[in-house]
Amino acid sequence: MGVMGIELEQAVEVIISHTRPIEDTELLPIIQAEGRITAGDVTAAFDQPPFPRSPLDGYSFLADSVKGASENAPAALPVIAAVYAGEYLEQEISDGEAVKITTGAPIPKGCNCVVRQEDVTVENGNILVRSELKAYENYCFPGEDYKKGSKLLNKGDEIHFVEMGILASAGYGQIQVYRRPRIALLVTGDELLAPGNERLPGKIYNSNLYMLHGRLNELGMDVICAEQLKDEPVAAAKRLAEISSMADAIITTGGVSVGEKDIFHQVLPILGCERLFWRVRLKPGTPAMFSVLNHKPMLNLSGNPFAAATTFELLARPMLHQLAGNERLATKRIQAVLANGFEKESRGRRFVRAAYHNGAVKIPEIYKHASGLLASMKGCNCLIDIQADTKRLTAGETVTVLLL
User: Fold this and answer.
1) In this structure, what DSSP letter does residue 403 have?
2) N or C terminus: fewer CB in 10 A for the chain?
């Protein structure tokens, strides 16, 4: 029946070794590609910009045409044409001639500089230029942004607004990306009510479903179902078997401890699943359980809200990272200095909610740390990893922080 009571790092190794990365891809319009992961390298098919262009509104000509120009002896150049952004002037400009040009317009042949519009005077169809210009002054070269054949995006890059802009600038209307992981989220507990219903004696509202659904969305998952199961092993097993054909992974909360209503100890045998581990040496969320159903990883977390939130970050997030191949989902640990102390003794490994900012980390009120309490997590953006046999933490100590 698998290993009982393993270390966190061992549990993560088991989960990752039984989670297959998604290799399915889809072609998406780039306007829909925000947050997706590139399925291959993307290279430039042409120089960007594809032609020499003007960085400002003004006049373009050959720099030698204004050699020796000064305030007292301005160079007079006839303006023989105008070129605007989006146009292209086939005509080659001769030495001593100028063209009017706007920002972004192609610089015509025969020209190698641009003077600002406000730096010249226009008289009788000529411009008076009162200073010399260097060759290629105010001149944007072809390929200044990137050259033809250069790599724009790497396989595995996450696409956001900058990447979308780069793809568009390179002429890509579509991009091949990996399919989003399809996650089934289920919670158990006959005591749970859907928010919005009348509160009944002995009942509590179902917070886990909404909390974890929100987190899965934040992490770029496709939540294909989010529902509550009754504390009935046969019915729960039937529903899980149905869902496993559609999902890439299954996450549940509740039903994993040692009580009469902790149904997953009965559900797994009904499904014919091997329990790969049950109980992880940490608080909160010790009774986390992991198995594989129809080749899909199934992670069963504690039903206590903060325990569910914590073990989601510690166990589910590495699973999602493995599925999606998105490096943003990788667990990030840093060192931080405690702004205040934590008086509780930690006989076993403990994870404490906290708020990290600018190298310092602050722990909320000590009496708000029970695994069933959720409200004190508001404003928290990290977990402090407290090792086993730690007597207490004092302000000024350096601790390991897991960023959420």
Assistant:
1) E
2) N
Exposure of 210 by Cβ count < 10 A (0-12 exposed, 13-18 middle, 19+ buried)?
middle
Task: Give the Cα separation of 160 and 16 in Å (integer).
Answer: 27
Query: Could you tell me which residues come within 8 angstroms of residue 255 by beta carbon, excluding any fewer than 6 positions away?
Result: 188, 189, 231, 236, 261, 262, 263, 264, 267, 300, 303
Q: Which residues contact 143 (CB under 8 A, 6 or more apart)?
A: 47, 48, 49
181 prior amide bond cis, ω within 30: no
- pLDDT of 1 strictly over 50: no
Grouping H, G, I as helix, E, B as strand and the rest as coil, residue 241 is helix
Same-domain check for residues 314 and 369: no
CATH code (residue 82): 2.170.190.11
Which tokens is 125 given? 């169809």
Same domain (yes/no): 294, 233: yes
Write the burial class of residue 330 (CB in 10 Å: 0-12 exposed, 13-18 middle, 19+ buried).
exposed
Tens digits of per-residue pLDDT, 196-227? 999 899 999 999 999 999 999 999 999 999 99
